[in-house]
Design goal:
Number of helices: 2
Oligomer: single chain
Helix content: 10-25%
Order of helices and strands: HHEEEEEEEEEE
Amino acid sequence: MSGIFNYKSISIHMSRFQFITANLVLITLLGFTSCQSPIHTLTGEYSYKISGQVNIGNTSTYVLNDEIGSLNIIHKTDSIYILTFNTLNGGVYHTEATLNGKELTLDEFQRILSVTYTENSDTFIGNTAGSLYTDNFSITVRGNGILYDQTIIFDLQYSGKQLDKQQSLRGNNITLIAKKN
């Protein structure tokens, strides 16, 4: 009888051992496959496009020329990231951002924005009505982005002044879409 008892005892122990081993392997695999770190999903190279409208002065609204380029996101510390923007026309600017869940909040940063427009009145910069103008503005950029798989959609706000004429510029509905390469 003791031989049968030992046999059953060994079978029970083997079954428990196999059960525990199988569960540990499964838990480990699930941990590695389903919980990809936000650091690995956020960092990398993106292509981006910015579009929207701005107000210049008190009443004039202008559609921005689309800006396209590459965005590089680098992990700095904990939930802080460095974002560098390289525009297709050669401009470069950067900022830091904080990740909280799926929301990326940009630190406020400064940049130069070129706006090309026509003005129907000669009161804006004193030239002939209907002429084509390109003016540079020193702007402050603020915004938040939401992560969607391989895409980040930012809602940006622009505010600033024209470099030589001191007209104000405001834009509250500017969209930046960045898609991971």
